[in-house]
Amino acid sequence: MSAELNSKTPFDRTESTVKGYGRTHPSGKWPGGAKVAVSLCLNYEEGGEYSIRNGDAFHQRDFHEYENGLTAAMPRPGVVDPAVESQYAYGSRAGVWRVYKAFTDRGMLLTLYGVASALKHSPKVTQKAVEYGFECASHGSRWIQHGTITPEEEAEQIREGLKIWSSQGPVPVGWFLGRPSKLSSYLVCEEYKKAGLPPIKWWSDLYCDDVPHWRRRPGGTKDEGMLCLPYSYDNNDYKFSQPAGWRSPKIYSDHLIAAFDELWAEAERTGTDKMMTIGLHCRVIGKPARIGALERFLDHLKAKGAWVTTREAIADHWAGLYPYDPETAW
Ligand SMILES: [Zn+2]
Q: Which listed CATH number (3.30.40.10, 3.10.20.30, 2.60.40.10, 3.20.20.370) goes with 28-321?
């Protein structure tokens, strides 16, 4: 029986997954003549990070404002660090609302990458996202290294997360964990199946292209596919919290505009529309000095006529143009 099922891990490195589409890829043919579809993903992690209070052995060490990766910020097992915790809480208290406003002021949409155990403390964040028409996607139930827990524990966390998301808003149709285990995509597909939910529409734990592609659904039959929308660390605001990262808001917005303009120019030259992904974090881009970099970029997108939308809308559009075909999927 198992021979008829797809592999549980569709991320093996083969000649064809490395090669991808090759020199040319299918065109997104986005609505309204836009040459680039832009997906801005707001990671909502605050409260779901490593914390003694979450039952972890140590607290979160990095992705905050000071001493990232240095010995002073090394976790001391079993010891709460209020300085780190409250730096995270800046995102859930102040940052998230500033980022939301940047989008609603311009009538633009984002995809919320919600960590379920973080949203549990802030149902208003989901409530407002739904009200604004944002997509509520999954960033896992906990914001942790999933390779460090057993598949049974991971499945249990997925079930726990589904309870939280569905109590606040729609069940996520797309997933990005950031630190998946080898089996994460399989376990998510299985838990959706067991819960009687429709299959997910997109999976983003990969970084290998500018446009979507199909893979066989892990553990599914040959006729079941999983649309992959590559994520991006290139355009990610997290580098503000890295010692060698973005040195100023101006540098960050220049980088985003350069990436977008190049994709737009390539699309015009080749006739194949592209996609761009930008990762954002409430406690990072939501700081007063940095929000202007995002606003400047959003204004540029508006002036150029980009399709700024959710990952779900992009996945629906792509799947409509290019339905899953087991013969060409990876
Ligand atoms: Zn994240």
A: 3.20.20.370
Per-residue tokens: 248: 């100023």
Cα 117 from chain centre = 16
Largest pairwise CA distance in the chain: 57
Contact indicator for 47, 88 with CB cutoff of 8 Å? yes
Mutual angle of helices 288-304 and 96-104, in 10-degree steps: 20
- Which residue positions in the chain have pLDDT lower than 70? 1-3, 67-75
Tokens of 79: 């010891």
The pLDDT assigned to 70 comes to 56
Please give the pLDDT value at position 64: 82
The rounded distance, in Å, linking the Cα atoms of 287 and 124 is 20
The pLDDT score that the predictor gives to residue 323 is: 98
Residue 2 half-sphere exposure, CB side, CA atoms within 13 Å?
A: 2
Question: Distance between CA atoms of 142 and 139, rounded to whole angstroms?
Answer: 8
Positive/negative CA dihedral, 149, 152, 158, 162:
negative
- For 282-300, letters b (16+ CB in 10 Å) and e give bbbbbbeebbebbbbbbee
Q: How far is it, in rounded angstroms, from Cα 35 to Cα 327?
A: 28
Domain boundaries, the chain: 28-321
Q: 178 CA distance to ligand 1 centroid (A)?
A: 6
Measured distance CA(307)–CA(318) in Å, rounded: 13
Give first-to-last CA distance, the chain, whole Å. 21
Neighbours of ion ligand 1 (CB under 5 A): 43, 178
Separation between Cα atoms, residue 256 and residue 101, nearest integer Å: 20
CA of 266 to the centre of ligand 1 (A): 29
Give distance in angstroms: CA of 5 to centre of ligand 1: 31
